[in-house]
Write a structure and sequence with these properties.
It comes from Acorus gramineus (Dwarf sweet flag). With 366 residues, the chain is α+β, with helices and mostly antiparallel strands. It contains 9 helices and 14 strands. The N and C termini lie far apart (65 Å).
């Protein structure tokens, strides 16, 4: 297996293609993929077989049911940071097209996919993100990362030309998710006691990006991870689990809780930006992906974020009455750079924006 060659900042080192590794029918995975911390994990007990809440977007937007559904959304964002989104309004045809085209892309020969490989100074393209050092452990996954919006930010060399319908499918999917995102942001704002336009405007002219994930079968799934534990540096993340193979896990009360795929739904999670804007009322949650010994897993995570020129900090409406301000303000582009310049490592990047509480020291006694 080729070695990771050096250390890099603001990009990702090239690593072996995991889909190719998996096709070799190995009985053991290379050492770089072994996670020693997994050996100490307890087995998932029945008490951990909880399920994240479900929110019905059609009811959230219907005055007859919106009050009750808004309460569900509020509790989900406060207590879980994750929820299933059902009756979301994205047409079945669009959903099926994006699933089909994603599966077809990863079925292609490596040389076809490599035509869209990442460049050294970017995490965009085909490969694996957040690989910054030869010492770090690697994820058992390949991915395709793309900028979707604004349209002017797209780097089309990374957008697949095969299957031929993929670009049009991604365009349709992107447009539909923008509508879903704005509906959720408006409802969250109301729950926080803020004018919906105030929160939605924070994402005006913002960025939408996608990470299309392929997790091949793994011969030692209990020793590997498909994606390292992390929170998302976005505002909201909308995940489509393409082939409904379980793998997503979230941290809840100090334990990893699996998220069961729900047909025709999305999994939505609160990102770091919403945690900051809400002054901590809503929390971004650590999550990770595990792998399966026999089945491949595919998913698309779509991230909605502010513009890189925007400043992020607690909304003034939430702290103007003398409440504690829990976060500093920071340029979002700078915050995102902190996130992408290191390996995925929980919520460590949040230390740069969280206000540090003054330490209590004993007075000097002469």
């Amino acid at each position: 297996m080729e070695a990771v060659e050096k250390t890099i900042i603001n990009g990702s080192l090239p690593v072996p293609n995991v889909q190719v590794l998996s096709s070799k029918k190995l009985t053991e995975i290379p050492n770089l993929y072994i996670r020693p911390e997994r050996e100490a994990e307890p087995a998932l007990g029945a008490h951990l077989q909880q399920e994240i809440p479900s929110v019905d977007l059609s009811k959230l937007l219907d005055q007859r049911f919106s009050e009750e559904e808004s309460k569900k959304l509020h509790l989900a964002c406060q207590e879980w940071g994750f929820f299933h989104l059902i009756n979301h309004g994205v047409g079945g045809e669009v959903m099926e097209k994006v699933k089909r085209d994603t599966q077809e892309f990863f079925k292609q020969p490596l040389e076809v996919k490599d035509a869209h490989s990442q460049l050294p100074d970017s995490v965009e393209g085909y490969g694996q993100a957040f690989v910054v050092s030869q010492e770090q452990r690697l994820d058992w996954a390949d991915m395709l990362s793309l900028r979707l919006r604004p349209i002017s930010s797209r780097r089309m060399r990374f957008w697949p030309t095969q299957p031929t319908s993929f670009r049009e499918t991604l365009e349709q999917y992107s447009s539909e998710l923008m509508k879903v995102t704005n509906s959720l942001l408006g409802a969250m704002a109301k729950n926080l006691g803020v004018d919906p336009d105030v929160l939605i405007d924070k994402f005006k002219d913002g960025m939408q990006s996608a990470r299309i994930n392929y997790y091949p079968p793994c011969p030692q799934p209990d020793k590997a991870l498909g994606l390292s534990p992390h929170s998302d540096a976005s505002g909201l993340t909308i995940l489509l689990q393409i082939n409904e193979v379980q793998g997503l896990q979230i941290m809840k009360d100090g334990n990893w809780v699996p998220v069961t795929p729900l047909p025709d739904s999305f999994v939505v999670n609160v990102g770091d930006v919403i945690e900051i804007l809400s002054n901590g009322k809503y929390k971004s949650i650590n999550h990770r992906s595990t792998v399966d010994p026999e089945k491949e897993r595919l998913s698309i995570a779509t991230f909605q974020s502010p513009s890189s020129e925007a400043d992020i900090g607690p909304l003034p409406e939430l702290v103007r009455d003398g409440g504690e301000v829990c976060y500093n303000s920071m340029n979002y582009g700078q915050f995102l750079k902190l996130f992408t310049s290191g390996k995925l490592d929980g919520k460590g990047h949040m230390q740069f924006i969280k206000k540090q509480k003054p330490s209590i020291t004993q007075p000097f006694l002469s």
